[in-house]
Amino acid sequence: MKKHLKHFIRLVNFEFERMFKFLASIMAIVVISNLVGFVVVPLSYMSSANEMMQRESWTVQQFIDNNELFSIYNVFRSFWMTGPIALGAIGLLLFSIFIWYREWFGKNTFVYRLLMLPVPRMQIYFSKLLVILVGIFSLLSIQLIMLWIGNQIIPNFVSNDLYQELGVAELLSSSALSFLIHNNIYEFLSIYGVGIVALLVLFTAILLERSFRVKGLIFGFIYCVITLATIISPLLIPIIAQNRYILFTSEQVALHAVMIVIVGVTSIFISRYLLKHKITV
User: pTM above 0.85?
Assistant: First the structure.
């Protein structure tokens, strides 16, 4: 057991080292873009506010009555923050695919040496999964830190009369990141449970394609459709039955959780079978 754990940690470290430059680049873009936004957006707001008050001969109070106060939310919904968030999400999705396919690149395909390591093949599978999760939480953490930093920087560029302080927690509850961070433990586990299962399904689809090539691509697509239908099926039952009260909310939640677990476990077992019997060296 100790020996297997040691090998697994080495595999995770190996995968993380291969991802580090990519992750560091995305994080650098997030930091730089956010810092620029924390200066450019409030300066632009103040310039527009001063111009409007001068043109309309408004007092500060008249401007406030006709316009919203400035807060970090103005920066959050600007390209300087939405851009890096979208880039990080798309980048990690593509890397989740690339983390498997790069093993087959080149004449001397590295996958054969990787699969010949004296470790259970599922350790390779779980090491890749864990590294992607580390990347997701790393990007989320740096974004939260930058939001806190933004709250310290922005007041220096906005007039006190026009500034509305908005805490990070308050911002998150009313923004696009609200689905990623929850005080409710069930909602937190539900969101990230679905995310982890989505990665498991993606990995399974990739291994199906690697195992059966063109047929595997079709199998993978069909599998993704089936798993999606399975996960959302509890939400469709009231619609199909034309009775919104056919299930209690607690029953619908429990059924949804069961479906997520079934899809996750099924994906792991299919992947294990493919790695053990279909992808050979």
Answer: yes
